[in-house]
Amino acid sequence: QVQLVESGGGLVQAGGSLRLSCAASTSFFLTYAMGWYRQAPGKQRELVAQIRTGTITNYADSVKGRFTISRNNTKNTVYLQMNSLKPEDTAVYYCNARLYTGDLRKDYWGQGTQVTVSS
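and the corresponding structure tokens:
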């Protein structure tokens, strides 16, 4: 079982920045792909960014060039630096830890942190 604790959400004006952090309680942090998802009211949860066990990353098209995902394997923490925020980035952001085992995958989720971008 992996527990994920997010922090760093809040209210910011359009064009501003926020950094989200997610601390994972696992001795095997290196083996997990870490990601951030978001869910806006009335919408499905969507992938924002993911970083694999090395430095391979992928981003949603809507955040490319504005958001950066990174991980610190000595601190068991993943970060999401969000710049040039837009009102449409408003959502609850969830940290995800994913373990791939062959064709199977196991997901763990944080409790979510609210990000609100005012226009």
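(Above: one complete record from the training split.) The chain is about 0% helix and 55% strand.
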